[in-house]
Amino acid sequence: MPRHSAASPIYTALARLANFNSGRRVLLASRKTSSSSARSSAKTRPFLCLALFRILVVVTAVFLFPPAIMSSSSSSSSAAAASVPFQSPRKVVKKVLSLSQSEGQGATVRRSIGGHEVRNLDPFLLLDEFSVSKPAGFPDHPHRGFETVTYMLDGVFTHQDFSGHTGTIRTGDVQWMTAGRGIVHSEMPAADGVQKGLQLWINLASKDKMIEPRYQELESKDISQAEKHGVKVRIIAGEAFGVRSPVYTRTPTMYMDFTMQPGSQLHQPIPEGWNAFVYIIEGEGVFGREGAAPASAHHCLVLGAGDGLSVWKRSGAPLRFVLAAGQPLNELVVQQGPFVMNSRAQIKKAMEDYYYGRNGFEKASQWSST
C-alpha cells in the first residue's frame, strides 16, 4: 500500500491546523491568567483573527477539495511504487555482446551463455541465437544429461531422432526436449531463406541425467500469452501477469518472450535464489534500474540477486527480449561437447556408450536422418 510522506499536502495541512490550534490555546490561557489581559487581548485580537482566517482557509481546502489533494498524493506514491516495486530489485551485473560464430554444418549462431565470457549460469548451459539457410543446419549429433529448448523466431525447422520421433516447428513454436540418458537427432531448416530461432540448454540434476528421453512440443497458438499496459508476454515456462505455462520443468525454470511498446514498463517477479538473464532480440531498453544505460539487440544481461526485474521502454521501436531464470542445481558441471555430466568418469562413459551403442545409444549406429 502506498505511504503518504510527511510532505504530503494532507499531512502538511493537518500539521498547520495543529500548530494554529496550539497557538490559540496558549493565547486563551494567557488572557485568563494575565493581569493585563484586556490590553493583551486588544493588541493580539488582529493577530488572532488573522490566524482564525488562515485556519478557515486550510480547513476549506482540505474538506471541500479532498479529491484533488488525494489524487496528487496518490499519484506521487503510485509513481514511486511503480519505479521501485521490489524490495530487492535485480540489477545487471554483466553485459555481454553475442558475436556471430560458425556451428553445426554451415550454420551461424550468436552464443551468449556457454561462450567465453559466461561459461554457464547454473542451471543454464548455453543460449544460441541461430540463423540458418539450406543446406546448412545441425545434422545427426548426440546429447546426454540435459534438456534443449528450441524456440522458433522466424521460419521452419524439422527434427528427427533415432527412436523414430519426427516433428516440424514453425514461427512461435517450441520444442522442449529432455535428452536424459541419450538421444541422437538432427535439426535442419525446412523452408527457403533464413530460419531464425533460439536454443537454450538447461542442465539436469544428477538424479535425472539418465532418465528416459521425452518431448514437450507446443505450437504457437498453444503457448500461454498475456498483455498488460503495453507489454505482451509469451510464457514458454513459468508464470507472468497471473498466467502460467503448461510446460513441465524438471529443473525449475521460467522462460518468457516479452515485447514492450514505447512508454511502457515491466516489473516481473523472479524467485529469490534463482539465477537469471535477459537476451535482447530486437530494440533497446533500460534494465535493472531506471538510470542505467540502455541495452540493445544481441546483448545478454546477467542479473544479480533480488526478487524481480524492472524494465523501461521509453521511446523508439518496440523492445523484444527473452527472460530466463532457473533454480541452481549447485552440482559439479563437467561438459564435453554434447555430453553434460558430473564427473570426468561419467563423460568418458557417455562417450564410450555412444561409440559402442549401449546404455541409451543402442540405435545410434544403425540410424541416420533423411
From TrEMBL:
Q: Which Gene3D superfamilies match?
A: Jelly Rolls
**Where does the Pirin N-terminal domain lie?**
108-202
Q: Which GO terms describe its cellular component?
A: nucleus
> Main location per UniProt?
nucleus
Localization (cell): Nucleus
Keywords of the record, alphabetical order, are: Nucleus
Please identify the protein, giving its name as recorded: Pirin-like protein
Whose protein is this, by species? Aegilops tauschii subsp. strangulata (Goatgrass)
